[in-house]
Structure formats: structure tokens, C-alpha cells
């Protein structure tokens, strides 16, 4: 036993060559690095953060696309509404022209009926004087104070009344609505904020034009309603005059 202590120190440990020692050292270091729990946790957190960020970006992109599509659809509906309003304004303008023409014709008929009434009054006086002459009463027929006016005076009266009627009618302010309406073409941009702002601005402008167009259409419709009421009075007046003059003609023919 005591002899063992006298042996060299190297004999008490197993012999290990240099290559084996280096391999074992590298394996120990790798094992030590791989067993670090914090390092694995950091790697997992980075992966989760990247996935969340990508999901958020994709969701935001989808929302932006839906928002832009909605704004484009709204713009299309506003454009269609404006086109319908402009077409209605054109039709109302044509209708006003026809109503004004009819109103002028009614004025001419009224003037003609007034002239024929004067002629009937003169005929009544003539027939009355002739009847008195034939019955032996040689009474000088009194001349009717309402002598018929010459043709130039009648034409002047027709022109004056027609001109006054036309001047008194309100002029439509919506005849040039269709020609003043210009739409600005905007280039489609990839930037969401600038494209959406442009669409919203165009929608505001379109709504302003539609509001102005609606006000003008309302004013024009009210004006044409007044014109129709005035024409109704004229038609009733013409009907009464024609009926009255027909009765007078029948009485003259019976005599």
C-alpha cells in the first residue's frame, strides 16, 4: 500500500490523448449552449412577433382595399345621379319652351276673339238699323263707339302682349347646367391616404353640384306650375268668349 504513494502521479489517472480531450471539450460547450432556456425563448418570441406583424399588415391592407372600393362605388352612384339630373334639366327646358309657345298662341287667340267681338257688335248695330229701316222707322243708326281697329293696330297689340308675356315669364337658369359640369380625372395612386382623400374631395364637389342642381330643378318646376296655372286661366277665358260669340252669331242669324 505504501508503495503506491511512491509511484509517479501520472499512474493514478487514466491516460487520455489530445484528440479525445478536444472532442469532449467541444461537445461540452455545445451542450452548455443548447441547454440555455432564455435563448430558446427569445427565438420563439421573435417568430411570434414577426407573424403578428405580418398578420396586422395583411389585415390593414384588406381594410384599405375595401374602403377604396366603397368610395369608388359611391362616386359612381353620384355621377349617375348627376347625369339623371342634367337630363331632367334638359327635358324641363324643352317643356318650358313648349309651354311658352302655347301660352303665346293663347294670347293670339284672345286678341282674335276680341277683334271678332268688335265685329259682332258692329253687325248687331247694322242689323238693328236695317230692321228699323225696313219697319218704316227711318232712324239714323247710331254709330257704335267701339269701332273695329285697323289691322296694323291689332298686329301691334298682339306683338306687344306677346312680348310682355314672354318678358314676364321667369327664365330658366338650368339650361347650361349640363355644359358647365366638368369632372376632373384623377390618377389612381397606390398611396391609400392620398387616394382616399382625393375620392372624398370629389364626392364633396359632386354633392355640392347636386345640391345646386336640385335647387334649380325645384325653382324651374315651381315656375312651370305657375305658367300652367296662368295658361289654365287663359283657356277658360277663351272658352267663355267662344261660347258667348257663338250665341251672338245664332241670334243674328235668326233675325
From TrEMBL:
Domain T-SNARE coiled-coil homology positions: 190-252
Residue ranges, annotated region (Disordered): 135-162
Keyword 4Fe-4S: no
Keywords: Coiled coil, Protein transport, Transport
PROSITE patterns: T_SNARE
Biological process per Gene Ontology, one example term: protein transport
GO molecular function per UniProt: SNAP receptor activity; syntaxin binding
GO cellular component: plasma membrane; presynapse; SNARE complex
Similarity field: Belongs to the SNAP-25 family.
Family matches, as PANTHER family: SYNAPTOSOMAL ASSOCIATED PROTEIN (PTHR19305), SYNAPTOSOMAL-ASSOCIATED PROTEIN 29 (PTHR19305:SF9)
Name of the molecule in the record: Synaptosomal-associated protein 29
Name of the gene encoding the protein in the UniProt record: LOC115629428
Amino acid at each position: 500500500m505504501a508503495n503506491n504513494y511512491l509511484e509517479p502521479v501520472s499512474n493514478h489517472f487514466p491516460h487520455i490523448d489530445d484528440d479525445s480531450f478536444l472532442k469532449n471539450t467541444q461537445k461540452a460547450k455545445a451542450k452548455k449552449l443548447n441547454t440555455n432556456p432564455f435563448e430558446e425563448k427569445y427565438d420563439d418570441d421573435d417568430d411570434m412577433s414577426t407573424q403578428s406583424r405580418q398578420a396586422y399588415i395583411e389585415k390593414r391592407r384588406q381594410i384599405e382595399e375595401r374602403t377604396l372600393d366603397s368610395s369608388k362605388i359611391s362616386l359612381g352612384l353620384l355621377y349617375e345621379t348627376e347625369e339623371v339630373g342634367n337630363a331632367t334639366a334638359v327635358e324641363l327646358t324643352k317643356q318650358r319652351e313648349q309651354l311658352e309657345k302655347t301660352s303665346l298662341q293663347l294670347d293670339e287667340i284672345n286678341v282674335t276673339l276680341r277683334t271678332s267681338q268688335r265685329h259682332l257688335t258692329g253687325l248687331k248695330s247694322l242689323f238693328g238699323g236695317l230692321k228699323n229701316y225696313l219697319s218704316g222707322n227711318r232712324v239714323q243708326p247710331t254709330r257704335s263707339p267701339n269701332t273695329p281697329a285697323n289691322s296694323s293696330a291689332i298686329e301691334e297689340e298682339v306683338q306687344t302682349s306677346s312680348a310682355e308675356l314672354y318678358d314676364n315669364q321667369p327664365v330658366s337658369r338650368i339650361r347650361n347646367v349640363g355644359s358647365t359640369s366638368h369632372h376632373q380625372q384623377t390618377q389612381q395612386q397606390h398611396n391609400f391616404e392620398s387616394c382616399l382623400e382625393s375620392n372624398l374631395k370629389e364626392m364633396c364637389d359632386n354633392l355640392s353640384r347636386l345640391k345646386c342642381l336640385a335647387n334649380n330643378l325645384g325653382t324651374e318646376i315651381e315656375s312651370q306650375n305657375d305658367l300652367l296655372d296662368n295658361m289654365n286661366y287663359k283657356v277658360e277665358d277663351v272658352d267663355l268668349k267662344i261660347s258667348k260669340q257663338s250665341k251672338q252669331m245664332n241670334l243674328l242669324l235668326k233675325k
